[in-house]
Amino acid sequence: MASDDIPFDKRFDLPPGQVEEVVPGVRRLLVNNPGPFTFKGTLSYIVGRGQVAIIDPGPLDQAHISALLDAVRGETVTHIFVTHTHRDHSPRCRRSRQQPGRWFLPRDRTAPRGR
Fold it and tell me: Among 14, 80, 100, 115, which is most exposed with the fewest C-beta within 10 angstroms?
């Protein structure tokens, strides 16, 4: 099958800032950063309930940061996963680590590197 035989489904109606449950226990949130590399925007994922992991916390976009904080309000974020270091996926991670207690684990509760 040639690559031009695969249709590109452009339907994606999630508005930025709105949390959507994809499957039970997995939520996603769209950043308002559409472009040729991000399509309609970058997605951050929240996995679990109560104690959650965030996958790709996203860029330094205040509206997205606020929406992500609201989405995990009352929950404990135990892990942060960054799938890659592009500027639309990872910058929020470093800033979050500088704010222990807000929504990510304090430094003294994280696993050492390499584990």
Answer: 115
Q: Looking at 4, 9, 56, 88, which residue is catalytic?
A: 88
For 71, residues 6+ apart whose C-beta sits below 8 A from its C-beta are 19, 27, 29, 46
Read off the pLDDT of residues 15-28 as tens digits, 9 standing for 90 and up. 999 999 999 999 99
Is residue 5 annotated as part of the catalytic site, yes or no? no
- Identify whether the C-beta of residue 56 lies closer than 8 Å to the C-beta of residue 86: no
H-run or E-run covering 51: strand 51-55
**Residue 75 buriedness (CB in 10 A; 0-12 / 13-18 / 19+):** middle
